[in-house]
Amino acid sequence: MDLPVKTIPGGYGVPFFGAVGDRIDFFYKQGTDLFFKTRMEKYGSTVFRSNIAPGPFISKDSRVVVLLDAVSFPILFDTAKVEKRDVFIGTYMPSVSYTGGYRMLAYLDPSEPRHELFKRYFLSLLASKHGKFIPLFRSSLSRLFVELEDGLSDNNNGKHKGGVYFNDLNEKMSLNFLYNLFFDGIGPSDSILGTDKAPKFFDSWLFFQLSPLMTLGLPKFLDPLEDLFLHTFPLPPFLLRSDYKKFYKAVNEAAGPVLDEMEKLGISRDEACHNLIFLVIFNAYGGMKNAFPVLLKWVGTAGKDLHHRLADEIRGIVEAEGGLTLASLEKMRLTKSAVYEALRMEPPVPFQYGHAKEDMVIRSHDAAYEIKKGEMIFGYQPFATRDPKVFEKAEEFVGDRFVGEEGEKLLNYVYWSNGREVDNPTPGNKQCLGKNLVVTMCRVMLAEFFLRYDTFEVNVGTVPLGSSVTFKSLTKAARI
Ligand code: HEM
């Protein structure tokens, strides 16, 4: 169908002041969702021009074309049309001093030969660990559930009040799993990797790189100060240098065989080690920190009815199949759907960016727009995956949305991995390398959960760049 070609509405305002004004709206006056919603309504369009945070002086150019619908958004996955060089987290790139002076895989465009080299190797590394995922993840989860139950019984005994904060338990569990998967032999209690300092260091390392996109939710009167410290100038990487070196040394020793293999491919051991750290800590740990609270938030707040249906499905299939395996997970239609639905409602990495490689025309539901070579295209994913023209009751969590033939077709519009759910990561695209692992882990988390418990209640909140979940109650399975 030929759609009318329209001029992209919106604009950037006066240089510098327009960008700072938009930043203040984005972080403080409106907040993320309202920032996009008000502009979408004002321009009557899901495609418009705007500045995007952080703006000056951290990003050189904050002008973007914003995409908010399910039809225009996938242009960001088309690496023939969109350049993904140095745009992994935004209109700025953190200093390479955080990563030994190298640009990591996630910052490389597929047209750069090193993208293919690293992605192909890491894909094969993950494939080689295929058989280990489920047993390792299950054993990390069992510890998490013990801690969760202990915490809740302390609560009931009046030792702590206010429930058990899931995010902290999740972070410990995620690191435990990742160490065992990638740094065989080095347990979290063995070295610098395992001290209490390590998770704090990782959080600081992530925070220093991501702070231009964050607000800490401080009292209002501190907003100008926060804006100055987090969003105006980059934090100095040298503050983390000495701890990073210690961690680097520990990984270098723990991951010998992987680094040997990478050296054989012509990658220096130094660059290989920095890339492995980035993969495990930034990509995987950073992603797991956000993704599991999202999953339990949406399934938790969906209520008892869904919990009982999930428990029935999971217990029935595990019993019939004789255990929890990849094959049994594949049969859990409702469980799979609930995972996709959580990732649709709240994609854990909500912002995607890319520069137009050429002059092009992009399409939304109702119009076409010309974009010039070099312009930055920006997608705010939660609006695209809650597009009411694609999803009925788009703003509601519908646990069985993706069950059945019609439901499965909707997977074309689930984008959390920076690609369609029906597609897979390859050396030539920019889709999340951990896509299938992440979906498997989410399914295992629900399966393990509902094998043990009938239902649960949570309080939900926000943390910088994500959601928080606090367990209020947990009802043990009446029958297993
Ligand atoms: C747990 C939740 C996770 C989420 C929500 C997530 C999300 C994403 C997203 C949105 C991107 C694309 C960013 C962009 O270029 O715009 C991405 C890329 C990437 N992810 Fe994940 N990820 C997760 C876990 C993992 C895991 C477990 C691994 C590896 C074990 C991983 C490895 C990567 C890598 C290497 C890239 C860059 C791919 C490339 O440059 O071609 N991620 N991830």
Could you please describe the fold and organization of this structure?
By secondary structure, the protein is of the alpha+beta class. The chain has a single domain (5-476), classed as Cytochrome p450, CATH 1.10.630.10. It contains 16 helices and 11 strands. It has a 5-stranded mixed β-sheet with strand order 2-3-9-6-4. Strands 1-8-7 form a 3-stranded mixed β-sheet, with no helix packed on it. Strand 7 (360-363) and strand 8 form a beta hairpin. Helix 11 (304-321) packs across helix 16 (435-452). The radius of gyration is 22 Å and the shape is globular. The relative contact order is 0.15. It binds protoporphyrin IX containing FE (HEM). Protoporphyrin IX containing FE binds at residues 84, 88, 105-106, 119, 122, 279, 283-284, 287-288, 291, 348-349, 352, 416-418, 430, 432-434, 437-438.
Backbone structural class:
alpha+beta
Number of strands: 11
Q: Could you give the order of strands across the largest sheet?
A: 2-3-9-6-4
Q: How many separate domains make up the residues? A: 1
* CATH class placement: Mainly Alpha
Percent in helix? 40-55%
Using the 3D structure, state the CATH architecture: Orthogonal Bundle
Task: Estimate the strand proportion.
Answer: 5-15%
Number of helices: 16
Outline:
The chain is α+β, with helices and mostly antiparallel strands. It is 47% helix and 12% strand.
Mind sketching the topology for me?
Blueprint: E1 5-6, H1 17-29, H2 32-43, E2 47-51, E3 63-67, E4 82-83, H3 113-128, H4 133-156, E5 164-165, H5 166-182, H6 197-210, H7 223-231, H8 241-254, H9 256-264, H10 269-302, H11 304-321, H12 326-330, H13 333-345, E6 351-356, E7 360-363, E8 368-371, E9 376-380, H14 381-384, H15 404-409, H16 435-452, E10 453-463, E11 466-476
The chain binds protoporphyrin IX containing FE.
